[in-house]
Design a protein that fits this description.
about 90 residues, alpha+beta, Alpha-Beta Plaits, four-stranded antiparallel β-sheet, two-stranded antiparallel sheet, 2 helices
Length: about 90
């Protein structure tokens, strides 16, 4: 298993610190990152949390998947590696 978790359903007003504090109940959080839209500089509503061990990551999944966090239900899964993009023609601007 991987100790990096995908977190979906994050409230748009949440901060990285909120996420880190919340997941700290399951163990040591190495990093917590909410993904930000480059154009609007606002949260995209998902992010990643890295726990210090696989056991803590599994505990976090059990504790927080489908549970409420600041008014929204979280989706917590093991993060998958980013798949390479298919070759496609570049757009000309």
């Amino acid at each position: 298993m991987n100790s990096k978790l995908y977190i979906g359903g994050i409230p748009y007003t949440s901060t990285n610190e909120d996420l880190k504090a919340h997941f700290g109940a399951a163990g040591t959080v190495v990093s917590a990152q909410i993904i930000i839209d480059k154009m609007t500089n606002r949260s995209k509503g998902f992010g990643f949390v890295e726990m210090s061990s696989d056991e803590e990551a599994q505990k976090a999944i059990e504790m927080f998947h489908d549970q409420e966090f600041q008014g929204r239900r979280l989706t917590v899964n093991v993060a998958r590696p980013l798949a390479p993009r298919e070759d496609r023609p570049r757009r000309a601007f």
